[in-house]
Amino acid sequence: MAVTQLMPGASTPATAVSGTDLPASSPATRSPAAPRRAATKGAHVAVKSLSHAYRRNDGKVLDGIDFEIGQGEIVALLGRSGCGKSTLLHMLAGLTQPSEGEVVINGNGVREPSHKWVMMFQAPSLFPWLSVAQNAALGLKFTRRGHEIDARIPEILDLVDLGAFADRNAQELSGGQQQRVALARSLAPQPEMLLLDEPFSALDAFTRRNLQRDVRAIARNLGLTLVIVTHDVGEAVRMADRVIVLQANPGRVAEDTAIDLSEEERAGGAEGFQREHSRLMGVYSRIAEAADAQDDIANDFTQL
Amino acid sequence: MSDAAQIPQFAFRLWSLGRARGLVNGLIGIALLLGLWWLGGLIVANDPDLYAFANFAPEPTLKRLWSMVLSGEVISMSGPSLERVGLGLIYAAAFGVPVGILIGRAPRIHELTNVPFQFMRMISPLSWMPIAVMAFDTWDGAIVFLIAMAAVWPILFSTAAGVRRIDPAWLKVARNLGAGPLHMLGSVILPAIAVDILQGVRLALGVAWVVLVPAEYLGVTSGLGFAINDARDTLDYDRLAATVVVIGIIGFALDAAVGRIVKKLNWVRAAH
Ligand SMILES: Nc1ncnc2c1ncn2[C@@H]1O[C@H](COP(=O)(O)OP(=O)(O)OP(=O)(O)O)[C@@H](O)[C@H]1O
Ligand SMILES: [Mg+2]
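Above: the input entities. Below: the C-alpha cells describing the complete assembly.
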C-alpha cells in the first residue's frame, strides 16, 4: 500500500513533497534531489458570519456560520442530506460566493477558485479522452507549470498507488481507481487544502475504507488542511480530528467536537473507535431528530 | 499436438473468416450494382428509341474511364472541384464551429438564433444561386459560397449539440483546478466535442459533394459538374457516365476517410 511505503525513505514522494511535520522523515533522510521548496503548509480557514440563499426570496440555506480551521487540521462537516454541506464546501473552494459574510483563507477573502484549495467531488469526472497521467497533470497544465509534469506526475501516481496505470485510458479503470486518479489530480498542483464532497460514497465498503485511510495519511504527511463533507458518522470518525455537525433548515453549526483517537484506533473495530462512533452518533441523532421535530411543527402550520 | 496449442489457431481462423465475410459481402454488393447497370445498358441498347444512349453501359464507360485515368483527365477535372469543396468546408467550419460553441454554451444565444438558423437551414442551398451570382465577382466565389451555405448547418448544429452534451462536472473540475477561458476551450470543450465537429463535417461533406455538381453548372469551365454538362452538350455519353463514376468514387473515399478519423478520435469506450 502506497501510504505505508511512503512514510520512511528518502526517495519516496511524501518526503519529496512534504518535509518537516512527518515524524518518520528526519532531515537526514531527505533527498538532496527533492524539489527545493518550503514544506507544504496547510491553509488556515476562517468562515465569518456566512449566510446564503440561492435566490433572493428563498429561505436561507446557510445561516450565520462561524468557525475556524487551523493549518493542517482534518475536519469533517457532518449533516443530513440537504443541510447545505455541499453549498458550504463550494464556498470554501471559491466556486460559489456567499450572499452574506465571507470565507477567509490565509488572511485573504476567497473570491474565486484556486489550485491552492481543490475540491474533490463524489464522481471522479476524469476526462475520458486523456490517459491517467494526463488527467493527473491537468492542474499543473492549467497553472502554467507544465515543466513540472515529468517530475511530479510519476511521483504523485505512485503516491496514490497507480504508478503502473499512468498510460492507461482513464475509462479503463475501476471506480475506486478513478477516484484515486482524481485524488492525484487534486494533489499534483500542491494545494494547501483539499475539500472532499462525499468522494467515496459510490465505492464499496472495502475500497472506501482504504481510501479513507490513505487520504488521511496523505493529508497528514503533506500537512494539508482537509475538509470532508459526509453524512456517514463512521467516515467522520475514521478520518477527522474534529467534526462540525450541521443542522438543517437553515444550516447552522450545531456541534463542534474533537475526535480524540490514535491512528491505530481509527483503523476501526477497537474500543476507542466504538466509543467515539456511538458518542458522535448520539450527537448526530439528537440534532437530526430536533430537525425532524421542527419539520413536523412546520408541517402542522402549513396544514392548518 | 496439445489442445492448448489448437485453441488459438481455431480462434485465428474464426477471426480471419469474420474479416473476410465483410469483404466478400462488399464485393458481392459491387457485383450486384454492376450487374444491374449492365442489365440497364442491355435494355437501352435493344430499344430503338434509346439506342443513342447505349454508351451509358458499363463496358464503354469503364473503358473510357480507364483512358481518362491514363490521360490525367480524371485528376484535372476533379482537382478544381475538390478545391472548391475544401474551401467551402473551411469557410463553413470557420463560421459553424465558433458559432456552434457559442450557441451550445449560451442558452440565450441559442434562443435568439434558433428560429432564424432552422429557417435558413431549410432553404435549399441552390436557391441562393442568383444571389451568389450577383454578390460574387467570380463564378468560383459563387460556387464556394453555395457549398459553404450547404455545409455550414450540419457543422453548426452538430457542434452545438456536442457542447450541450458536455458533462458540466468537467467544466467544474477544470475551473476548480484554475483553468482560464483559453484552457476551458482548448483542454475541455474542443477535445470533448472534436468527434461531434467531425461528424458534422462528415455530414457537411456529403451535402457539399451533392451541391457541387449543380453549382458547377454555373459559368466555370472546370470541375466535375462542368465535365458532366460538357459531356451532355457534346453527346459524349461514355464520358458522362465515367464522370458520374468518378464523382461516386471520390465521394465515397472522402466519406470513408473522415469516418476513419472520427473513429480514431472517438474517446468513448464501450463499458466493460
Ligand atoms: N444550485 C442551487 N440552486 C438552488 N438551490 C440549491 C442549489 N444547490 C443546492 N440547493 C439547495 O440548497 C440546500 C442545500 O443543498 P446542498 O447541496 O448544499 O446540501 P447537502 O448538505 O450537500 O446535501 P447532500 O448530503 O444531499 O449532498 C438544499 O435544500 C438544496 O435544495
Ligand atoms: Mg452534497
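Note for the figure: The first helix of chain B runs from residue 3 to 46.
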